[in-house]
């Protein structure tokens, strides 16, 4: 199976070379990205890329972190944007930006949960890193195969939190809407929270930063063999450097 895939890749590279020689650049570029991030990250990168390569068709594949790494290894996708801390280190991988998960909870729910102690509890959590105190909050959790969901579970385990889960979903925008309405607290990357929360919604929430243990690199991984892939990677890294 690997041999057949290798032959197929060689044929595809030859076609790309002939197209480039003839000045008729075309082909299908398959880009994988974890859920919740495509709209935020890819839109400006794709617009930049299309100016340089208008003849290239793009296929966007959204999947879990683990599945994207597997698809990149097998050649199902050409490029993957994800957390590559676990995976095949022989792949081409470069950092794009650093993501930070924070804990968001409605001000009203926080008050109802801790009562007169709310200011003291907030200070102990935020400044004293007594994260175990968050155990009293009902939670809205991202899926365990999502990057943020995975790190939230690692964080809770390390902090000794036995969670009371009210809802679990892959869609973090949905969970943050429920968070604003007071259904529970939510672990969410700052880049996603900034994208989905309006000024009015943010006013209803308390944000608790969680320190370095809730930070990780989002990277771009890619396969060799096509100049168009290298061009997309360059566009992505340049655009992320401008944003972050």
Automatic annotation (TrEMBL):
Keyword field: Transcription, Transcription regulation
Entry-linked PANTHER family: HTH-TYPE TRANSCRIPTIONAL REGULATOR (PTHR30126)
All copies of domain LysR substrate-binding, residue ranges: 23-225
Species assigned in the record: Candidatus Fusicatenibacter merdavium
Family: Belongs to the LysR transcriptional regulatory family.
Pfam family, one: LysR_substrate
Protein's name in the database: Substrate-binding domain-containing protein
Entry keyword Transmembrane: no
């Amino acid at each position: 199976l690997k041999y057949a895939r290798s032959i197929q890749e060689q044929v595809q590279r030859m076609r790309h070379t002939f197209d480039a020689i003839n000045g008729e650049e075309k082909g299908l570029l398959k880009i994988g990205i974890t859920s919740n991030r495509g709209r935020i990250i890819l839109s400006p990168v794709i617009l930049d890329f299309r100016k340089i390569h208008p003849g290239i068709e793009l296929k966007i594949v959204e999947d879990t972190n683990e599945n994207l790494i597997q698809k990149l290894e097998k050649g199902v996708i050409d490029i993957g944007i994800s957390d590559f801390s676990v995976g095949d280190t022989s792949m081409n991988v470069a950092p794009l930006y650093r993501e930070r998960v924070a804990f968001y909870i409605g001000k009203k729910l926080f008050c109802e949960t801790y009562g007169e102690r709310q200011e003291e509890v907030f200070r102990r959590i935020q400044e004293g890193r007594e994260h175990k105190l968050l155990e009293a909050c009902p939670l809205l959790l991202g899926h365990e195969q999502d990057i943020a969901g995975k790190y939230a579970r690692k964080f809770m385990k390390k902090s000794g939190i036995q969670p009371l889960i009210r809802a679990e979903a892959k869609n973090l925008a949905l969970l943050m809407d429920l968070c604003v309405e007071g259904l529970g607290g939510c672990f969410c990357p700052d880049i996603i929270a900034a994208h989905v929360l309006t000024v009015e919604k943010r006013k209803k929430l308390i944000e608790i930063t969680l320190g370095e243990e809730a930070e990780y690199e989002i990277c771009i991984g890619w396969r060799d063999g096509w100049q168009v892939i290298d061009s997309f990677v360059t566009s992505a890294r340049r655009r992320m450097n401008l944003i972050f």
